[in-house]
Structure formats: C-alpha cells, structure tokens
Amino acid sequence: MTLSRRTLLKTIAAGGAAGAAAAIALPAGAVSAEAPPPVPPDARGLLYDSTLCIGCQTCTVACQRANRMPSEKSVKVINGAPYLFPTDINADCRTVIKLYEKGDRWAFMKMQCMQCLEPSCTKACMLGSMQKRQYGIVTWDPVRCTGCRYCQIACPYEVPKFQWDSPVPMIVKCDLCLARKDGKTGSACAEVCPREAVIAGPREELLATARRRMAASPRKYNPKIFGEHDGGGNQSMLLAPAGVEFTDLGLPALGDVPPSRLAMNIQHTTYKGFIAPAVLYVAAAVAVFRNMRAERKADAAQGGNEEDRP
Amino acid sequence: MNAHARPVGGKIVTPFFLVLLALAATAGVLVGYRLFTGVGSITALTDQYSWGIWKPINVVTFTGIGAGAYGVGLLTYILNNGKYHPLIRPAVLVGAIGYSLGGASVMIDLGRWWGSVFLLYPPWYNFSSILLEVALCVLTYVGVLWVEVTPAILDRWSADGSSRLKRFAARLQPRLQAALPFVIALAMLLPTMHQSSLGSLYLMAPTKEYPLWFTGWLPFLFLTSCLTMGFGSVSAVDILAGSVMPGRYRTNMALLGGIARVAGWVSLFYVAFRFADLAISGRIGYAFQRSYQVPFFWAEIALFTTSGLLFLSRRARTDRGRLFTAAILALLAGAIYRVDTYLVAFDGGPGARYFPSVGEILVTVGLGALGVAAFLLIVKKLPIFAVGETRP
Predict the structure, then answer these.
(1) Judged by CB atoms within 8 Å, which residues 41-80 of A form the interface with B?
(2) Cα B333 from Cα A83, distance rounded (Å)
(3) Torsion of CA A34, A38, A44, A46, to 10 degrees
(4) Minimal Cα distance from A277: which residue of B?
(5) Is the Cβ pair A147, B112 closer than 8 Å?
(6) Which of the listed CATH numbers 1.10.760.10, 1.20.1630.10, 3.30.420.340, 1.10.3660.10 matches domain B2-381?
(7) Phi and psi dihedrals of B321, rounded to 5?
C-alpha cells in the first residue's frame, strides 16, 4: 500500500488537470459574454401585437394552407362537430393563437419561431442543418439533419417540432413562408390578418412600427418590445397589453444575453484552437510512452521478458 | 502478468446466454419495427421531452460503465501504476462493448439515421455544436477501444491459430506495440473530452434545467462521476469474475483495494464539490424546496456518499461483498446523476410529462443483455482474464 497515498494525490492532480480545461473556461468565459449578436442586414421577421389580435386564428389556417400542412391533427370533434383546435404548435402546425388568463387580465399570444438573432438551435445542430440563411431566417436543411432533436432540447421557446410517427421524419418550424408551397411569397399569417395584429417586414421597420404604436397610445401597451433585446434579440417580436407580462404569455425570462452563451463560452474557451486537447494528447502520449518503456526495462531487469500489453 | 490471460473457455450456449439473446432479439424486433414506423411508435417521446431514457441510460450510463477503461488506464499508464495491468483487459472489453452499445443506441434514436454518414464530412461540421463533439469523440473512441482489444485477439491467434494467423499475428504484434502509446493517449484524451461534454450538452438549456443541476460545472461533474462509475464497474466485474469462477480466477483484492481508495475519495470529492458549487452560486436553497426533483437530488447525494464511504472503509479492502456493494452503489450513483440531469431536472414545459414506454425499456434491457452476452462470449474465447492461477 505504499502507492496509495501518492496514487491518490496524483489522481486528484490528474483529475484536476483533466478538468482544468473546463475549469479555466469558467472565469475566462465572462469575456465578451455580454456583446449583443449582430443583426443580419436583410433581417426580416414578424411583429405580433397582442392588443390588436381578436383570436380569430385566420393566421393559423392561412399558415397551414400556404405550407400545405395537413390539419387533421388540429381538428377536435366536440359534440359530433369538427372544430379547428390546435392547442399548440406541432409538426402539422407552425403557428397558433393562445389565450392566457391571469386574474381579470387576459391576452392573446401568437406562437411561432422567434427567428433569434443568435439562435440556440443553430448552435446545437451538429451538421448545420439549422442555419440562419436568407433574410436571417432560420431554416432547416433535410440533407444535413440526422434527426437528433438537440435543437428541440436547446430551443428556449420549444419551437422546432419533430414528426414522431414518420420513418422519414422532418423538423417543422416557421420559416416566415420562405418556402411557401402555394406559389406566393411573403408570410401568409401577416397577409391574412384582418387587424394588422401580425405584420411582416424588415426588422428595423417592425421595430419602428412597434414604437410608433406604443407612442400613439402608451397606456395601452406593456412598454417592452419582446424580442428587441430578449435572448440577444429576435427577428420576430411581440407587443403585450399593459399589465400583462411576457412571462404570463408563456414566454421564458431570458435576459438580454443569448441563452446559449454560457455553453458556448465554456465550450469555445475549452476548445479554443484545439490547443487544450492537443496539449493533453501530447502530454498523455509522452507519459504513456515513458511509463511503458520504464516498465519494460524493469521487467527485463527482473528476467521476465514479457511485454506489457493492455 | 497479462501474458497469463487465457480464454475462460467452457460452453458458450448456456440457458442464461439464451435468455440474454432472447432479450436482445426482442429489442431487435422493436428496432426493426421502429425503422418503418418512426421513433414515436415505440417510445413515449414528445416534442417537449424529445430525449428519453435512451440518452441518459443507453448512451450516457453505458459509456459511464465503459469508463472503467479510462479510469484504470489513467492509473496504469499516466500515473504509472503498472500493477493495475491485470484489470485493464476486462475494463477495455467492457468499455468497447459499452461504447458500441451507446453508439448503437444513438443510431436507433436518430430520426434520420442515414444522415449520420455526413459525420464523416468535415465541411459541414458545426464547431459550435457540443453534440457534434460528443458524436465524433464517441465514434473515434469506439474504434480506439476495439484497437485496444486486438492484442487479446492476436494473443489468441499466435497461441492456437492456423499457421497463417500465427504469422499474421507475429507481424502485427510489434507494430501494434509501437503504436500503442499513441492509441492509449487517444484513449485518455477522448473520454476526457466527451464524458465532460455529455454534461455540457445541457448547458444549452438554461431555462429548462432545474437549478439544482444547472451549473457551469456540469462538464466537470460528469467527468468526475464517470471516473467513479468506471472504478465501480471495474471492481464489480473483477469480483463477479472471481465469484463465478471459484478456484480458477481470484479477484485481485489488493488491486481493487487501491482502486477503492481512489474511487472513495473521488466520490466524496464529488459530493463536496456539488455542495460547494450550490452554496457559492446561491442555489443551495433549492435542495430544501418541496418539489419532485428534490428527492432525486438527495438520492444522488446519498448514493455518492454511501459508496464513497464504503469504498474507503477498511473492511472493503478485504471483504468482497462489501466492496461489491460499494461498486454497485457507485454505478447507481453515476446513473442517477445522469438520469437526473437529462430527465428529472429537465422541464419540458407546462403540462409536459415523460415516462419511458415499454418499448423504450425493452430496447434498453435488450441492448444491456446483448452487451453481457457479447462479454461472456468474448471472455470465453479470448485471453481477457488471468484464469487458472489461483491455488486453493
């Protein structure tokens, strides 16, 4: 048992060295963690104004038509009569209107992909299937997708949906009708909205519209534009009525830093230039080489000529 | 000492072996069915809980069990404790099997599994993806582990192969010997990378993880706990081998005693670190809240503490039963920490629930059974254990 104490100390040291890469990353990770993500010059998105929405769900229907989504799963039969009843976005439904109530306050909420400026899904995606492409819109490339669903784990809004009952499943999410299947262009939901509760356009214009509306009737609105800065900022943004918090609408409290930043700082610091792994590898190789040689010599000295194999 | 490793021999097809194969076949049928009907057909997975038990158990726990090769490798090759050599071959075999099963599970779980061929196409790599790093490391490491198993195959061939196999083995052995340090170094680097990254994966979901588990130290805690799991699995395997082959194989109690000491301190270090992290970051209060996640946290702490103390107890160094208990508890501790991080701590959103389906459980059990069957087959045919040395 002469080795035990030394082994112990050395193991802890080795464990420390092994974890050192991760450990160093933590304090170092603070660097530039706050920098806001860049806005693509052609960034387009949606602006949803909850104070104008009447909950008619025309947008949901138009979305399903424009993208040729089957609607069977969104239909619920109540007392023998079929109703369009999508309770949440799913693999057949990319946008939905929800009603949130809290006390005597209530508000509609339109759910669809937020088109983050720094999305978690694109950071998570192994082969770059999810990427910000034209107009900064996050789109899904079937060829590069392995169906791992890490985008679903990572998305703070739970937007990407997976076709669970297909042997050739796709990830389905709003792409602002970039690839509409009915031959038209533009976002179908904004096109049909009878109240301009949802409008589509360049992000800067949407922000300007939002500010104009809020300035015209400041008492009507929650003073914050959700998505201007939240989670680093989005291209699709929301306005809520005064007295209704965005968390009441089922949105996560993200702060102004993209939610993937902590992970990215730790990961990119640890693996910066692949230096730490390379150093670790060389150190391990030298240690193994020397130890194996020493052991062979010791074996030879003892008269045994056995080779040490693992 | 390894030169004394011999095939265990004996009948391959035993009733137990057939049971294992039946379980594996059941899993095979389910997987076949899933290929034509989609992932949802045999799983309870939903868009809210899109990763189920196949991830934390099949991938992360199987590879945790397989981390014995990493743990003992560190002790033997890096810390130069050559005495641990006799434990290496079984550990490497368990690792090779565990990691292969983990990789197979990923393929079953991937909705568009054919797309994974592009993991071999670097231009498409997204270097921000933690999952990509895990995938590439695990894939490479599966190969490395099987390369580490090949000396056993070559030994077998040079001992009683045909003359051609003997010549082939004789030609390959010195080359393998020369390459081994570089292979082993890779076998030390890759688990350091992916075992930690298996924890980092959930750093991407800060709003969904229960605060008791969400910490920037996730990678470090996963790395630490893979060591205790690895030491646990090495000890359990060696004790089991001694128990099922009485008179032919003697459990290396002296070596396991040394490992137990390390495993014990690492386990207790894990617990201390976990609490220190919670206290410093001000999240310790969550451990005393009324929430269904909290009992899981304390179970985790209890398992790590108990196995750690048992490992360190003086009697564990002589008492096989006690050491075995410690080893199994260490495996459970690591397993529950993994399941907690991946499932218990994960909030899929309001109203979202997940409990594994019968299909998922059967596939997990079947893959485990396949692993045990493969291990039994290989140790009977290849020189893995130093059998036939014990004197009554």
Answers:
(1) none
(2) 49
(3) 0
(4) B189
(5) yes
(6) 1.20.1630.10
(7) -60, -45
pLDDT band at residue B288 under the 50/70/90 scheme:
very high
**CA atoms of B5 and B7, how far apart (whole Å):** 7
pLDDT grade for A131, boundaries at 50, 70 and 90: very high
> In this predicted model, what pLDDT tens digit does every residue of B369-386 receive, in sequence order?
999 999 999 999 999 998
Per-residue pLDDT at A32 exceeds 90: no
CA atoms of A158 and A151, how far apart (whole Å): 9
Residue B111 and residue A149: Cβ atoms within 8 Å? yes
Task: Judge whether A101 is closer than 8 Å to chain B, CB to CB.
Answer: no
Mean pLDDT on B243-262: 91
Q: Do A126 and B126 touch (CB under 8 A)?
A: yes
Does the beta-carbon distance from B258 to A26 stay under 8 Å?
A: no
Smallest CA–CA separation between B223 and chain A, in Å? Answer: 7
The ranges assigned to domains in chain B are 2-381
How far B369 CA sits from the closest chain A CA (Å)?
A: 25
User: Quick one: pLDDT at residue A26?
Assistant: 45
Amino acid identity at A215: A
Minimum CA–CA partner of B385 in chain A: A310
The answer to whether the CB of B253 falls within 8 A of the CB of B318 is yes
